[in-house]
Amino acid sequence: MPIEIKRPRSEGSDQAVVIGTIDWTSDGWDYKTEDSDLMILLDEVMTEGTVTALTSVDTDEGTFDFVEEEVDVTDDRFISGLSTYLEQNSNMWIGVSA
Questions:
Q1: Could you give the angle at which helices 36-48 and 78-89 cross, rounded to 10 degrees?
Q2: For the residues of 38-55, what is the DSSP string, one character each?
Q3: Cα end-to-end span (Å), the chain
Q4: Residue 73: what pLDDT?
């Protein structure tokens, strides 16, 4: 199942357009896009090797939600962290197509 990267068709639009795809497994990932801004962002992540994902942590003092944790491609939270990274640095997000 391809993982699509989307952005709004135009500013303020409710419609989205696919601008790239990601092939991801816990062994690695690659992408395809013609969008130069997206290419720069994804190359940065590939070079860094990790993204920040949000998690919950249980301690003796209670449960803390939205704790940031660096995760690599082997972690199931990688795609979620990558989507958050794209949303924070651009007007793009990740959606899994059916």
A1: 130
A2: HHHHHHHHHHH-EEEEEE
A3: 7
A4: 93
Phi, psi angles (nearest 5°) of residue 28: 165, 180
**Euclidean distance between CA atoms 4 and 57, whole angstroms:** 30
**Residues contacting residue 12 through CB under 8 Å, at least 6 positions apart:** none
CB 40 within 8 A of CB 89: no
Write down the pTM of the prediction. Answer: 0.80
**pLDDT by residue (tens digit) across 23-69?**
998 899 999 999 999 999 999 999 999 999 888 889 999 999 888 89
Which amino acid makes up residue 60? D
Q: Taking the alpha carbons of 95, 97, 20, 68 in that order, is the dihedral positive or negative?
A: positive
15 closest CA partner among 24, 7, 23 = 7
Of the candidates 29, 15, 27, 10, the one whose C-alpha atom is nearest the C-alpha of residue 83 is 29
Provide the token pair at 45.
């992540």
